[in-house]
Amino acid sequence: MHTQAPQAIGQQYDGRSPFPPAQQRLSVHAGQAALTATIVIAPFIALACGIWLAWGSGISLTDLLLATVFYIATGLGVTVGFHRLLAHGSFTARPWLRAVLAVAASMSFQGNLIGWLAAHRRHHTFSDRPGDPHSPYRYGAHPGGRLRGLAHAHLGWLFSSEPTSAARYAPDPLRNDPAMLRISRAYPALCAASLLLPFAAGWAISGTLYGGLTAFIWAGLVRIALLQHVTWSVNSLCHVIGERPYTTRRHDRSTDLWPLALLSFGESWHNGHHSQPDCARHGRAADQIDPSAALIRLFERLGWATNVHWQAPDFLQHHRAVAGKHTLHTSARRPGGAGDRA
Ligand SMILES: [Zn+2]
Ligand SMILES: [Zn+2]
């Protein structure tokens, strides 16, 4: 269980020192660490192998199409399902759509539903303060600490011994949503399906076992590695590099990073997201491409999504007025700058 201690420590945090050690630690089971390492490293090795294979013989059109389809399906599952729907309640979805999105997201090898929600909500509770499970400022704001922190925010936190209480941060699916609980528990089976489906599709389309194997590498392992690293880059890079046009809570250093916008389905407009976490659209300005928000809009038109939290029409106007008043644009680009709201 997480105690009140991090909040108390967070109040005294100066915004630049390394975070104090956590009050509670888990002894990480060697088997668990090995499993996490496999889930993290195997797709990455496949990514290297896939590039090497493609260099020699080219990638088949079937592999490319299957990889794209699985990347989009599981990626939007994470962004629209896990993140905007379940973690932040940005909209209400029909029960079948909720289940489809949760299943698709669970096939992305990013942890089970309950664990994902709990860690992410904790990140918003303590953004870049002690208690944040994956802040790049954990080891301090000086360049060396920031570099070490980037590795921690990207990957290292997955091996952390600091527990995140599911009862505290994800009580809703635990208590009142048996379907979500079942999907969370089915995570290992859904991971297996995430590898077997591309293999079966590649085999069926090409008619050869070799076609199944290359689809397994490209649309299975390589696709998983790419999506994992794009998602984790939002945790790491999108708190260090980029612009901070919007006000966030004190110490929160989330950024907007345009090069990742398309691959992350709009999630790299991360400063926009932290400025209003329950908004269904993370790209706050009209020219910020946000495919996840476009899908939610489509669901809304089809009547599958209701109660969608869109930003107020006068948001940008209001923001510009506030920015002008407090010279936000010049100060906010510096992490931890005076644009931060206390
Ligand atoms: Zn964040
Ligand atoms: Zn979020």
UniProtKB/TrEMBL annotation:
- Pfam (any one): FA_desaturase
Coiled-coil residue spans: none
Q: Tell me the first and last residues of the signal peptide.
A: none
Record membrane topology: Multi-pass membrane protein
Q: Does the keyword Plastid apply?
A: no
Q: Which residues cross the membrane?
A: 33-55, 64-84, 96-119, 209-226
Q: Which domain of life is it from?
A: Bacteria
UniProt family annotation: Belongs to the fatty acid desaturase type 2 family.
To which species is this protein native?
Streptosporangium amethystogenes subsp. fukuiense
| Name listed for the protein in its UniProt record | Acyl-CoA desaturase
Q: Which UniProt keywords are given for this protein, alphabetically ordered?
A: Fatty acid metabolism, Iron, Lipid metabolism, Membrane, Oxidoreductase, Transmembrane, Transmembrane helix
The record's listing under CDD domains reads: Delta9-FADS-like
Q: Which InterPro entries match?
A: Acyl-CoA_DS, FA_desaturase_dom
- What subcellular compartments does it reside in? Membrane
- Domain called Fatty acid desaturase: residue spans: 68-281
